[in-house]
Design goal:
The structure holds 2 protein chains of 2 kinds.
Chain A: H1 7-27, E1 32-48, E2 51-69, E3 72-78, H2 83-99, H3 131-147, E4 152-171, E5 176-194, E6 197-207, H4 216-228, E7 239-245, H5 247-260, H6 263-268, E8 288-290, E9 313-317, E10 320-321, H7 328-333, E11 348-350, H8 357-364, E12 367-374, E13 384-395, E14 398-411, H9 412-417, E15 419-422, E16 432-433, E17 437-445
Parallel strand pairs in A: 7-12, 11-16
Antiparallel strand pairs in A: 1-2, 1-4, 2-3, 4-5, 5-6, 7-17, 8-9, 8-11, 9-10, 12-13, 13-14, 14-17, 15-17
Helix pairs in contact in A: 1-2, 3-4
Chain B: H1 2-13, H2 20-30, E1 37-53, E2 56-74, E3 77-83, H3 88-99, E4 114-115, H4 134-151, E5 155-173, E6 177-196, E7 199-209, H5 214-217, H6 221-237, E8 244-251, H7 258-265, H8 270-275, E9 295-298, E10 319-324, E11 327-328, H9 335-341, E12 349-350, E13 359-360, E14 364-367, H10 374-379, E15 383-395, E16 401-413, E17 416-421, E18 425-429, H11 430-433, E19 437-440, E20 445-446, E21 451-455, E22 458-466, E23 469-477
Parallel strand pairs in B: 4-6, 8-15, 14-22
Antiparallel strand pairs in B: 1-2, 1-5, 2-3, 5-6, 6-7, 8-23, 9-10, 9-14, 10-11, 12-13, 15-16, 16-17, 16-18, 18-23, 19-23, 20-22, 21-22
Helix pairs in contact in B: 2-3, 4-6
The chains are: A alpha+beta, B alpha+beta.
Chain lengths: 449, 481
C-alpha cells in the first residue's frame, strides 16, 4: 500500500512542528511568518518489452519558511525536518530579510481572508499497490499495446506510479491547514515502424483514486492507435487554414490566458492582455469558470498557498474577462483584493458549445488537426505564437494523412477571437478542463514548395 | 582532488558515524549476483538567490539540502531508493528497496573501499555564496537596474537575479571506488520590458559558470548583460512578421549551438540508442553531416557551466567526438548503457540530485570551426533568415524532428542583413539537417553559460557552441508569405 504512515499522527506532528517554527520566528523578532511543510511517499515502476526496467521508491520531505520584518522578507528552505534544521532555516531567512528592501506590498494575506473551514475534497485514496502488482499492471498494458498492431515495433516503456502526500501550510495569524492527497498514474509509450518511418506516441491516465484510472486495455489500445496513425507522415506546403486543437492540447491555449491575466504579469505589464478586466477577449459563446471544489479533481483546493479561502467564480462570461488570478502581493500592487490564487489557478472549466469531436472535424472542413505541439514559441509579452506541430491533414471533414515537420503560427489575441467552437470531448487529466477547440485560421509553414 | 575527497568523506561519512564496516553492511544488502553496477550517491547542496524588480531587491532565498540515493543495476533493470537522512538505518532501508529489482542471492562485496584518483579539478572548491558580501550582491543587482534604465527611455521594467550554488558529492560504487567532487555554479540573468508608443517587447540576457560571483563584477560583465537585454528588446520593437516556409538560414555563433543540442545531441544519448528508439539508432559510421563538420561533447573544459571534473557516476569527463568530418562516430554514455552496448562510459552519467536516477546527458556540445568568415556566409545568401539568438528548443527523438525558437533574427536580402523579424520557431529533421550545412564559419564560440537541459523531468546545466553556419532549407514558422 502506498500511503502516509499513521496519517493522523503525522499530521498532528507536522502541525506541532509548524507551530514550534513560527514560535522561533517570533522569538527572532519576526513580525510575521509562514511555513510550508511537505512529506510524501511513492512507488514508480517501468517495464519495457515485457521486462522490468525501473523500480523507484520515493520518500520526499521538505519545508519552506518566509519571515517578515515589517515590510522586508526572506525565504529559506531545507530538506531536513528536525527542529534544529528548521531553526537554522529560520535564521537563514532572517539573514536574507536583513538585506532585502522595504516593500510596502509585502506581508501575509489579511487575517479576515483566512479560510475558516473547507469541504472535504476527497483527494486522498491510497492504492493497495506493491512493486509486483505495479509491474504486472504495466506489463499487461504494454502487452496489449504491442499485440494490437504489427507495426508497433518497439516500446519506450509502460509505467505505473502512485504517490501519497501531505502538504501543510501555517502562518502567524494562527491559520494552519493540511491537505492529504494521492496521485496515481499509468502510461504507455510506444514506437511504431513502417519501412523507413519511425514514430513514437503515448497515452496516460491520471487520477486521485486508483479506481478512476483507465484500464490497461484502454491505455494500451489508445497508445497503439495513436502511434501507428502517425506513421508515414508527410510535410505540407505553406498555407493558411483552420486548425483543430484536440482536447489534449486545448488546455494549453487556456493556460496561456491564465499566465497573461495572472497578477504577476498584470502588475509588471508583462502581458499581451494588459488592463483586460471587462474586455471582450473571446467570442460571445465562450464561458470559463473556476471551481476549486470538485471532489477528487486535480486542481481542487479549500485554501490557497497563503491560507486564503478559495472561491468558485466566473473568469469569462460571454467572452468577457471577469477577473485576474491574484495572490495577496499582486492584488495589492494592482489595488485589488486577492482571488485566492496564490500558487496558481484551481480547476478551470471551459464550457462546450455542444459540438462533438466529429462535428468539429466536419466544421474544420479542410485544414489541420493537431496531435502534438513542441518547443516554447509562445511570447507572453506580445501574444505571438509559433510552434512546431505534428498532426493530420483533413479534407471535407475526413482525415487524409499524418503530417510532421510543420509549424503553426498566429497571435493569441487573434486566435482567441477566432475560436469557432468548443467540443464536448473534455479531457480531465489536468486542472484545466476543455474539449477540443476549433480556430478558423492560422498560418502553417511546411517544407514543401 | 585531495581536498574534495577528504571534505566529502568528512561531511557524509565521518560526521554521520558511518564506517567502512557499515558500508560493507549496506553493500551486502544491495548487491546480488546479477548486479552489474551499483552506487551510493551522497549529495549536499547550498543554494542562494537574490532578485531585483522595480529597482529594489525584493526577495532572496536560501536553501540547503542533503541526502543519499542508492541504486542497484542488473543489466537493463534498475532499482532505486533515496533518503533525505544520512544514517546507517536509512542506507540499509534504501539498499533493501533498491535490491528488490533482483531475486538473485547475495553478490560479491567490494574488496575494501579506496579513493579513486581523478584528474585535475576543472574548477575551484570554494563556496561561491561567500565570494561577495550580501551588500555587494545587492549593489551589483542595483547597478544592473540603473545601467539598463540609462540605456533607453523605453525601458519600463528591469528584472535581475543572481544565483549561487555550492554542491559536494561523494560516489561509492560496487567496486568500492570512492569519488568526490565539489561543484560551484553561479548565474546572473537580466530581463527587461521596453515600451514605445503602446507597443511592448521583452528580452533577456545572462551568463555564468563554475566560479565565483566576482566574475560578474569583473570587466563589468553584469552590466554588459543589461546592455544586451535592452539592445535585443529594442530590436524586437522594430521587428516585422517573420516569413513562413522553407528557406536558407544563417545561424550565428555561440548560443545558436542549441541546434546541435536538439538536432544531434539528444539523439546520440546511449539510452535511446540501446533501446533503438532514436532516429540515429544504428547509424554509426554513416554520413550524417556535410564533409568538414565535426561535433563534440566536452565535459572537460575548465570553468564552464556544462563541465564536470567527474560525472555523477564518478567517471572522469572527456571530449567525446560525436561527428567527425561528417560521419557519425560516437554516442554519449553513462555506465549502464555503455555496459549494455559493449562500449566505454564517456563521463556523461548525470542526475539532477540524489533523488533522481542518472542518465546519459550532454555537457558542453559544440561544432568545431570551419573556414569561412561570418561576413562571407551572410553575403552568400540571396534571401533568407539570419538567426542570432534563441530562446530554447525541443526534439522528438524517434522521428528526429526538432524545433528551436528565435529571440533575435533578421532577414537577409541580396547578401545583406536588412530588417529584424519577430520570434519564430524553426523546424527541421535531426538526421539530415547537418547534411544541408553548406558553409561553416571560422568563429566557433561557446554560449555565455545559461543553458538548462530537461530530460525525463530532470534538469541539468549544459553548454552549447558553434561557429556561424549556413543551412540550406530549414522551415521557418512565421506568418508572412
Amino acid at each position: 500500500m502506498i500511503e502516509l504512515d499513521n496519517k493522523d499522527a503525522l499530521t498532528a506532528q507536522l502541525q506541532d512542528l509548524a507551530t514550534q517554527i513560527l514560535a522561533v520566528a517570533k522569538q527572532r523578532g519576526a513580525t510575521a511568518a509562514e511555513v510550508n511543510i511537505d512529506k510524501g511517499t511513492g512507488l514508480s515502476t517501468e517495464v519495457r518489452m515485457g521486462a522490468v526496467e525501473k523500480l523507484e521508491y520515493h520518500r520526499d520531505q521538505g519545508a519552506g519558511i518566509t519571515i517578515y520584518f515589517g515590510n522586508r522578507k526572506g525565504y529559506s528552505s531545507c530538506g531536513d525536518l528536525s527542529v534544529q534544521a528548521l531553526t537554522d532555516a529560520v535564521d537563514a531567512a532572517c539573514r536574507i530579510a536583513k538585506y532585502t528592501a522595504e516593500d510596502e506590498f509585502n506581508g501575509l494575506a489579511d487575517a479576515s481572508l483566512m479560510a475558516k473551514s473547507w469541504p472535504d475534497l476527497d483527494l486522498y485514496h491510497p492504492w493497495d499497490l506493491n512493486a509486483e502488482t505495479a509491474i504486472r499492471r504495466a506489463q499487461e498494458t504494454e502487452a496489449i499495446a504491442r499485440e494490437s498492431d504489427a507495426r508497433i515495433s518497439n516500446s519506450d516503456g509502460s509505467s505505473v506510479e502512485s504517490y501519497a502526500g501531505l502538504s501543510l501550510y501555517a502562518n502567524s495569524h494562527g491559520f494552519s491547514g493540511a491537505v492529504h492527497s494521492t496521485h496515481h498514474s499509468a502510461s504507455c509509450v510506444l514506437v511504431g515502424q513502417d519501412g523507413e518511418s519511425m514514430q513514437r506516441d503515448y497515452w496516460y491516465s491520471v487520477a486521485r483514486a486508483p479506481s478512476e484510472l483507465e484500464s490497461p486495455a484502454v491505455i494500451g489500445q489508445k497508445a497503439a492507435e495513436r502511434t501507428v496513425r502517425r506513421l508515414n507522415a508527410r510535410t505540407l506546403s505553406t498555407c493558411e487554414v483552420p486548425v483543430l486543437f484536440p482536447a489534449t492540447l486545448a488546455r494549453g491555449l487556456i493556460g496561456s490566458l491564465v499566465s497573461a491575466v495572472s497578477g504577476g504579469s498584470q502588475y509588471r505589464k508583462a502581458t499581451f492582455l494588459p488592463d483586460s478586466i471587462g474586455q471582450k477577449l473571446f467570442p460571445d459563446f465562450v464561458q470559463l469558470r473556476e471551481d476549486p471544489f470538485i471532489p477528487r479533481a486535480l486542481g481542487s483546493r479549500g485554501f490557497d498557498g497563503e491560507g486564503v479561502a478559495t472561491q468558485a467564480r466566473d473568469i469569462l462570461v460571454d467572452g468577457r474577462l471577469q477577473g485576474y488570478f491574484l495572490s495577496t502581493y499582486s492584488a495589492k500592487k494592482l489595488g485589488m483584493v486577492t482571488t485566492g490564487n496564490a500558487g496558481g489557478n484551481h480547476n478551470l472549466i471551459l464550457q462546450s458549445t455542444g459540438h462533438s469531436y466529429e462535428d468539429l472535424l466536419q466544421q474544420l472542413g479542410t485544414g489541420l488537426l493537431l496531435n502534438e505541439l513542441f518547443g516554447g514559441g509562445v511570447n507572453g509579452m506580445t501574444g505571438d505564437y509559433s510552434r512546431g506541430a505534428v498532426g493530420f491533414w483533413v479534407e471535407n471533414g475526413v482525415i487524409q494523412y499524418p503530417v510532421e515537420e510543420i509549424t503553426i503560427a498566429g497571435n493569441l489575441k487573434d486566435m482567441y477571437h477566432n475560436i469557432q467552437a468548443i467540443g464536448n470531448d473534455v479531457d480531465i487529466r489536468g486542472n484545466i478542463r476543455s474539449g477540443s477547440i476549433l480556430i478558423n485560421r492560422m498560418t502553417i509553414a511546411g517544407s514543401n514548395s | 582532488m585531495k581536498q574534495a575527497i577528504d571534505n566529502a568523506i568528512d561531511i557524509f561519512l565521518t560526521s554521520s558515524g558511518l564506517t567502512h564496516a557499515h558500508l560493507d553492511q549496506v553493500f551486502s544488502a544491495l548487491l546480488t549476483r546479477e548486479t552489474t553496477l551499483a552506487d551510493l550517491y551522497f549529495q549536499s547542496s547550498r543554494y542562494e538567490s537574490w532578485s531585483l524588480e522595480e529597482g529594489i531587491v525584493k526577495s532572496g532565498s536560501f536553501s540547503i539540502d542533503r541526502g543519499v540515493g542508492v541504486r542497484s543495476v542488473c543489466g537493463e533493470k534498475t532499482g532505486f531508493a533515496y533518503s533525505g537522512e544520512i544514517s546507517l538505518a536509512a542506507l540499509l532501508d534504501s539498499a533493501k528497496a533498491a535490491r528488490a529489482i533482483s531475486q538473485a542471492p547475495v553478490g560479491t562485496l567490494p574488496k575494501g573501499f579506496q579513493v579513486r584518483s581523478t584528474e585535475r579539478p576543472l574548477y575551484g572548491t570554494q563556496d561561491p555564496l561567500l565570494s561577495l558580501s550580501e551588500n555587494e550582491k545587492i549593489e551589483l543587482l542595483k547597478q544592473i537596474d540603473i545601467h539598463a534604465r540609462a540605456m533607453s527611455p523605453y525601458v519600463k521594467q528591469v528584472m535581475a537575479n543572481m544565483v549561487a550554488v555550492h554542491e559536494t558529492i561523494l560516489i561509492i560504487d560496487e567496486q568500492g571506488r570512492m569519488t568526490a567532487d565539489i561543484r560551484p555554479l553561479v548565474r546572473t540573468n537580466v530581463s527587461v520590458i521596453v515600451e514605445r508608443e503602446g507597443q511592448s517587447e521583452s528580452a533577456s540576457a545572462g551568463g555564468g559558470g563554475r566560479f565565483d560571483l566576482d566574475f560578474f563584477v569583473n570587466n563589468n560583465r553584469a552590466l554588459h548583460y543589461a546592455e544586451e537585454a535592452v539592445r535585443k528588446a529594442l530590436i524586437n520593437l522594430d521587428a516585422k512578421a517573420a516569413p513562413a516556409g522553407s528557406m536558407t538560414v544563417v545561424l550565428g555563433s555561440g548560443w545558436p549551438g542549441v541546434l546541435l543540442h536538439e538536432a544531434i545531441g539528444h539523439g546520440l544519448e546511449g539510452d535511446f540508442n540501446r533501446k533503438g528508439t532514436s532516429a540515429f539508432s544504428g547509424k554509426i559510421g554513416q554520413q550524417v553531416a556535410s564533409k568538414g563538420i565535426t561535433v563534440v561533447d566536452d565535459g572537460s573544459l575548465e570553468l564552464r557551466r556544462g563541465s564536470l571534473t567527474v560525472d555523477d557516476e564518478g567517471t572522469p569527463t572527456q571530449c567525446t567526438t560525436l561527428i567527425e568530418d561528417g560521419m557519425l562516430v560516437g554516442y554519449i554514455q553513462d555506465r549502464q548503457n555503455a555496459l549494455l552496448m559493449g562500449q566505454k562510459p564517456t563521463g556523461n552519467g548525470r542526475r539532477q540530485s540524489y533523488a533522481h536516477l542518472p542518465m546519459p546527458r550532454m555537457t558542453n556540445t559544440y561544432m568545431r570551426s570551419g573556414q569561412y568568415a561570418p561576413e562571407e556566409i551572410i553575403a552568400s545568401v540571396e534571401k533568407g533568415v539570419y538567426a542570432v539568438n534563441f530562446s530554447g528548443g525541443q526534439v522528438d527523438i524517434t522521428s528526429g524532428k526538432f524545433v528551436f525558437s528565435t529571440s533575435e533574427a533578421y532577414m537577409i536580402e541580396n547578401g545583406k542583413v536588412t530588417y529584424p523579424i519577430k520570434n519564430a520557431t524553426l523546424i527541421g529533421n535531426g538526421p539530415d539537417v547537418l547534411t544541408r550545412v553548406s558553409m561553416v564559419g571560422n568563429d566557433m564560440n561557446l554560449d555565455d553559460g545559461v543553458g538548462v537541459c530537461g530530460k525525463d523531468g530532470q534538469s541539468v546545466p549544459v553548454g552549447v557552441g558553434q561557429p556561424t553556419l549556413r543551412v540550406d532549407g530549414l522551415t521557418v514558422g512565421g506568418t508572412a508569405s
